Amino acid sequence: MSADAPAGYDPHAFAPFAVTVDLAVFTVRDSRLHVLLVERGADPYKGHWALPGGFVLPRESAESAARRELAEETGLTEGTVSAFHLEQLRTYSDPDRDPRMRVVSVAYAALVPDLPEPRGGGDAASAQWWDAKTPGPLAFDHDRILADAHDRIGAKLEYSCLATAFCPPEFTLGELQQVYETVWGVELDRPNFRRKVLTTPGFVQAVAGSPRRTGGRGKPAALYRAGAATALHPPLLRPEGRST
Amino acid sequence: MSADAPAGYDPHAFAPFAVTVDLAVFTVRDSRLHVLLVERGADPYKGHWALPGGFVLPRESAESAARRELAEETGLTEGTVSAFHLEQLRTYSDPDRDPRMRVVSVAYAALVPDLPEPRGGGDAASAQWWDAKTPGPLAFDHDRILADAHDRIGAKLEYSCLATAFCPPEFTLGELQQVYETVWGVELDRPNFRRKVLTTPGFVQAVAGSPRRTGGRGKPAALYRAGAATALHPPLLRPEGRST
DNA sequence: TCCTTAATAGTCATTCTGACTATAAAGGAG
DNA sequence: CTCCTTTATAGTCAGAATGACTATTAAGGA
Q1: Chain B residues in contact with A104 (beta carbon < 8 A)
Q2: Does B59 touch chain A (CB under 8 A)?
Q3: B222 contacts: CB under 8 Å, gap ≥ 6
Q4: In the beta sheet, which residues pair with residue A109?
Q5: Distance in angstroms, CA of A239 to C1' of C23?
Q6: What is the average per-residue pLDDT within B43-57?
Q7: What is the pTM of this model?
């Protein structure tokens, strides 16, 4: 911030703002984009599904709060979760977005590989994966947040190497292509996709010397790991125009 | 937000969060990128320069607060300012970013055409344009915010038609190219830039029939207005790698 | 032993881009 | 008035990148 506080400012009397984080946790499973949702147990929107999230604690940054919530909702350790891609999306601050009080929420998008069904170790034991395209009406403004998150991820796949964040440590180019096709909702030409990925320095690197069979049928595919590059130059553009 | 409030939650007792907005207001002037700064009059960082900003009011969204501050600091009416490009950058929430109390700040970037020297109608009468590349150490974490804002704008010029936001209603292609060169800090080939802009449908549209002379010397340039397009497909990539 | 499936290797034309060269239309210096 | 400089605009050409295809290879299953 930068403006001077109002004269005689008393934090406890002036700003009844609560600050929360909301998480859009995405994964690719069965060729469909999934998002982690929790069922609300308390009154505003009780029974509705919502993005996982929670309050930012007094001595914690929003980033830390998001990482903490991610661990709680997925039931994984903070150590495991620290390897996942987590990025700030934007902040939602409409005065009426929460009927109870003034809540400003910093939204994050997380990209995780296909995980086992979440065993909620945190407060929301009812966390569950939902298809990201048809998750009924969510609580609060979470439909909007989810849509924004989906848009952002789709756009970032174009000019970053982010897609590998959806994959396990070792993956095939077919799996990587699936990520693009799933998030964008389009089909890509396989040879062209290969060429683009393999000629972009640092996007992926081949694993020593071991192919594996995917579903069993077809020629075994070579395995790759995520490379050191983060940006994609030139970008891998979506077929049509923008947005999904 | 989504998590349920802690049991027995009392907004006034629990969360002494203040929420502010900070603005990185950019303009291109004399072939250099400028940013609007204000001199702090009160104690934390008194005498330092800072990004303009202020508290989000109890019944106001961060977006509205940013628009309001933009009008105050530039000394223009809200009506005038509503035409300027204003976009949310990201939110800064480090617990110690303000020594006085817990302040979460939503940062915005604004792009304005070359304006007359600001006559601060608001609280900070000392608003002034500074070269965006060398604005000494700023108050709080504003150096970081400014750097992030510069990066974001530079990146958006690649795949959006945003550059016209820096130009007056009617402009020459030379002026538009100046925007790119100034923000990116590189020189572009003029014929190639022309070709790219003119062949991108909706980027610019020619004004009826009237050239004008720029500085006086040289062949008069044709005038254009911003077109209807917002995205740039394919993008106009920077010469080298990413970031500035 | 065929058939199907999926991975991988190429080809070819089109588009886009970067690096240039050429021409046109102003103002300024002599 | 005539060069000279400056800036806008037109056009050329080779190389890179992309989209649309056509093989070929290596599995599993009927």
Answers
A1: 17, 19, 56, 62, 104, 106
A2: yes
A3: B172, B173, B206, B207, B211
A4: A24, A87
A5: 39
A6: 94
A7: 0.91
